[in-house]
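In the previous chapter we treated chains in isolation. Here, by contrast, the input contains two separate entities that must be folded as one system, with a combined length of 501 residues.
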Amino acid sequence: MANVPAELKYTREHEWAKVEGDRARIGITAFAQEQLGDVVFVELPKVGAKVTAMKTFGVVESVKAVSDLFAPVTGEVVEVNVELPKKPELVNTDPYGQGWMLVIRMGNPKEIDGLMGAADYEKLTAGAGH
Amino acid sequence: MTAPMTPLKRTPLRDVHVKAGAKMVPFGGWDMPVQYTGIIDEHRTVRGAVGLFDISHMGEFEVQGPDALAAVQRLCTNDASTLAVGQVQYAALCYPEGGIVDDLTVYRLAPEHFMLVVNASNIDKDWAWVTSHSEGRARWANVSDDTALLAVQGPKAEALVGRLADRDVTGIDYYHFARGAVAGVEGIVSRTGYTGEDGFELYVPAGQAERLWNALLEAGRDDGIKPIGLGARDTLRLEMKYALYGNDIDQTTNPLEAGLGWVVKPAKGDFIGRAAVEALRARGVGRRLVGFEMVERAVPRHGYRLMAGDAPVGVVTSGSFGPSVERSIGMGYVPADRAAVGTPLSVEIRGARHEARVVKTPFHPSHTKKA
């Protein structure tokens, strides 16, 4: 069973969001990285870019597959994980820590309430995969 | 997701893979393990130690009789008359127009007895093709379902197989085979593979596959042996620029542009596709299958466009991150005048162009046993 931290919020597309004041740090879940396999490339927007809730903001590529990344919340990108271009494997080894992708200044913090809690996300992923 | 039209076929080891926690995927109509621990880890295990593959999905046809050689010669582009008993040859089956039916290996089991090993996804098509284009008194048998095929590949493969075999295996040269028992399982011990590493492919009765599989994993434990899925098989072959049927070669490509001119031997006499390939050779090919590497890490994939400036000039046929070369690499067809090593190209990935350049292949040095 993949790790699902209780303090995070989740999308159906397997991204997580961690609220840090008016900002949200985001990445993909342990379940997502397990399904993807070895991550070899992450394409992210630049600082200053606008992202929209449940629209794609980037791409993650494993050896076998390409997957879109969906923004959990709307807002402006204020930080990008600059380690990921050099070490995309951080998404596999530490998806909730060093494998984070963006920090977004939220345009509408209420969107967070529309995301799934850990219990619901765990239900979503239970029995999925292999 | 749509349900497959027909149930996926299973190798004799399918349940073993599932129990071992492999991630299973459909491949060419088969339920196959794509990975166990992870593609990169498995890839490195084969390059650095030894890996065990279940490739029982591959097809095996036998042909024998006084006209067996004539039948093989008519069907295959390579010259099977040069094969000694105990020798293996890579070849292609061509359509009369020069397109490729399949690529395969040909084993001479006895003077009038050959085995043809074909791609899993092409078994039915190839069987129909060879039996409808055979010669005289040649008896064909499709033994695919009765035959399991395990590949043991990597620098530690020779010692491992040697410890379990009832005969010397060090004297089996590259693209040669011998009959022998490994872990008490009788079969064909073939010094071939699809990884660029030294190693063997073991053809054994389907009912013995699990016994051999377990014996190899057990005996190879101290060597760091691991089961390897199709994901790493693909990255390993890509680093060697070995063509994969359905990706890099197919009915619409000919052996010359695919870089397989070395297995086309018109001097041997007539074969299906000879006239077309000879005409092509005289005229010169318009495009070539090249290897390229990406300047950045973005991954080229099958079907992406290859560009020169603003002009589309070709298409990616295979691409991946190469775990040993540690960069993104690919193969694709480009116009012959853009095939030289060093030629700049770009790959269109999600609407943006990413720099690439044609490089010398194989991407990673081959470590197969030298003859």
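The CA atoms of residues 22 and 106 of chain A lie 6 Å apart. Residues 9-112 of chain A form a domain with the OB fold (Dihydrolipoamide Acetyltransferase, E2P) fold (CATH 2.40.50.100). Compare these points with the single-chain example from earlier in the chapter.
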